[in-house]
């Protein structure tokens, strides 16, 4: 079989790619690279948006926590002021009633034998009811007679030398003292025993 010149040229053209095909392939690769660039930019923009939203969320959360703390502090302060106001009002009311208790105490401590016992029994009942109401509000009478003198609770207006009593022992209560919810409302006015004077012995 013999080839002529024309057949050989045709076969060569079929093996070597045409310049048009090469150019077309190059064109397709450039288009793909160009198409990939907008995708990267969009991803970076999305990441930036997410970070911005996260920062805004953290800022809003912080503001919310601060506002909640301020509201809780305001609630506590309001409750404390309310309690202090009620305590002050209660203290003033109870202090105003103490002279009435003193009157009952003096009347029951100095009984007139000419007055019927029923009268004093009525006084005792009224005194007890009034004292019970005040004690439920936090009032507590101070211990005095037989206790040791305490300058934080008692006010001594007189001292007596009494060998049968301890030194600084309270021997008489002149006016009852009270505490209101563990705080001193009024000191007790008392007489206090002191040890016999040793002035004569010290001069020897």
Descriptive account of the structure:
Helices cover 62% and strands 15% of the residues. The protein has helices spanning 5-15, 19-109, 117-136, 199-202, and strands at 139-141, 154-161, 170-175, 178-180, 183-186, 188-194. The model is unreliable at 15-23 and 198-204 (pLDDT under 50).
Write a concise synopsis of the structure shown.
It contains four helices and six strands. The protein is α+β, with helices and mostly antiparallel strands and 204 residues long.
Number of helices: 4
H/E topology pattern: HHHEEEEEEH
Mean pLDDT equals 81
Beta content? 15-25%
Report the span from N to C terminus.
Answer: 167 Å
Helix content: 55-70%
Order of strands, widest sheet: 1-4-5
Shape: elongated
How many strands? Answer: 6
Low-confidence stretches: 15-23, 198-204
Structural class: alpha+beta
Largest sheet, in brief, is: 3 strands, antiparallel
């Amino acid at each position: 079989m013999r080839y002529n010149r024309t057949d050989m040229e045709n076969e060569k053209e079929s093996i070597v790619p045409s310049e048009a095909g090469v150019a077309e392939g190059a064109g397709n690769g450039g288009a793909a690279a160009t198409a990939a660039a907008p995708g990267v930019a969009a991803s970076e923009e999305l990441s930036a948006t997410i970070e911005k939203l996260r920062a805004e969320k953290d800022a809003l959360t912080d503001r919310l926590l601060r506002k909640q703390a301020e509201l809780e502090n305001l609630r506590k302060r309001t409750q404390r002021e309310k309690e202090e106001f009620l305590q002050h009002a209660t203290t003033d009311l109870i202090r105003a009633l103490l002279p009435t208790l003193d009157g009952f105490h003096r009347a029951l401590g100095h009984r007139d034998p000419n007055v019927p016992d029923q009268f004093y029994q009525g006084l005792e009942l009224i005194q007890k009811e009034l004292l019970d109401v005040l004690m439920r509000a936090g009032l507590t009478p101070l211990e005095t007679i037989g206790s040791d003198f305490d300058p934080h609770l008692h006010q001594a207006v007189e001292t007596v030398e009494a060998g049968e009593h301890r030194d600084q022992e309270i021997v008489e209560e002149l006016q009852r003292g009270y505490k209101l919810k563990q705080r001193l409302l009024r000191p007790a006015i008392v007489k206090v025993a002191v040890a016999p004077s040793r002035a004569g012995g010290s001069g020897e």
